[in-house]
Amino acid sequence: MELLELLREVRQQQASDLHLVAGSVPRLRVDGRLKPMPQAAMLTSRNVSDLAESLLTKEHQRELAESGEWDGAYTLQEAGRFRFHLYTQRGSLAMAVRAVSESIPSIDELGLPSAARGLMQKSQGLVLVTGPTGSGKSTTLAAMLDQVNQERRAHIVSLEDPIEILHPHKKSLVSQLEVGSDVREFQAALKGILRQDPDVVFLGELRDRETIQAALTMAETGHLTVATLHTNSSIQSLTRLISVFPAHQQQEVRIQLSMVLEGILSQRLLPCVKGPGRALALEILILSPAIRNLIREDKLHQIYSMMQTGQSQYGMQTMNQSLAKLCRQEVIGSELALELTMFPEELTKLLERTRHV
Predict the structure, then answer these.
(1) pLDDT of amino acid 356
(2) How many CB atoms lie under 10 A from the CB of residue 310?
(3) What's the CA angle centered on 135, arms 146 and 37, to 5 degrees?
(4) Which phi and psi (to 5°) does residue 167 adopt?
(5) Where are the domains of the chain?
(6) What is the CATH number of domain 3-99?
(7) 56 φ, ψ to 5°?
(8) pLDDT for 45-74, tens place per residue?
(9) In terms of DSSP H, where are the helices of 15-106?
């Protein structure tokens, strides 16, 4: 089977991912669950190598041979845009392919609350979208950046590895830099971004101390800075941002965060209990004056209670409140919600309260 045929099957099955590993049939991830591709043959190591060779340039093949892995994104005729990750396992090549949305959904189409729209109307500050792999962060970010693109006369600069969703120029000017092709290294490119006169900066994933420091500095110097983290909650995100710095710098970072952070969206995509598709569960932290003070004073454990009560005034909500709402609407099952929550006792009480309403 040729790569193009496999990718067409991804689109036809409405899968989010395709996995090609020697010794297995191709597998699709549909609504969050892996399943074998219908009527597909077992892959050999040679099959996967041939598929990779049809995808990569000579330069990319050298990069793969040197490092053992390769990341990239392509738009293929008749199949659309995909992100590819090639890696080595058991001495043979393997491939993980992510289907990229062919159109950019709006904030309303994704069901994001007005608080998300409000964050992107800020002229400066740091906005984070967090969640595990496959939680829809890229789609959420694309919708949020597209809002700026449609509403503001701004220069949006993104630094991505690789570029996933292509943004056309609308009301804004959009410059998308890809690590490896447009810029050699992520860290070196960070220094040049501020010379490009950006209004909005998208940094992809905050991977390490240097990237986090760059995001804080950009937000502090008057730019709206948007990035992602692989964390499961707002408080976990704050802890990660602070703990990567040595102890003697952490108070300074807390002060910096308390001034520049505007909000954190922490999300999960969950299989719907009725029919196909997945539902968005979303925790929202908006930086109120009281929460900024708690960050400065290193009282992160007190933030959760403020999120519980900050819904009406600031548009905040905890993950448990979002899960309970989805259960009440019969979009997801309570068993799944209780499996995922970090606070099962609180969620149980919320669900019981819902039943008595």
Answers:
(1) 53
(2) 20
(3) 110
(4) -105, 120
(5) 3-99, 107-317
(6) 3.30.450.90
(7) -95, 145
(8) 999 999 998 889 898 899 899 889 999 998
(9) 45-55, 58-67
DSSP 39: T
Q: Which residues does 148 contact at the CB level (< 8 Å), separation at least 6? A: 120, 154, 156, 172, 200, 224
Question: Apex CA 53: angle with CA 71 and CA 96, to 5°?
Answer: 40
Measuring CA to CA, how many Å separate 11 from each of 8, 18, 99, 137? 5, 10, 8, 20
What fold is seen in the domain 107-317? Answer: Rossmann fold (3.40.50)
Nearby residues of 173 by Cβ (< 8 Å), 6 or more positions away = 154, 155, 156
What residue ranges in the chain does DSSP mark as E strands? 17-21, 27-30, 33-36, 69-76, 80-89, 92-99, 125-130, 155-160, 173-178, 200-205, 224-229, 261-271, 278-286
DSSP output for 222-268 = T-EEEEEE--SSHHHHHHHHHHTS-GGGHHHHHHHHHHHEEEEEEEE
Residue 155: strand, helix, or coil: strand
* Beta carbons of 262 and 303 less than 8 angstroms apart: no
Q: What is the pLDDT of residues 94-141, one digit of tens each?
A: 999 999 987 899 999 998 999 999 999 999 999 999 999 889 999 999
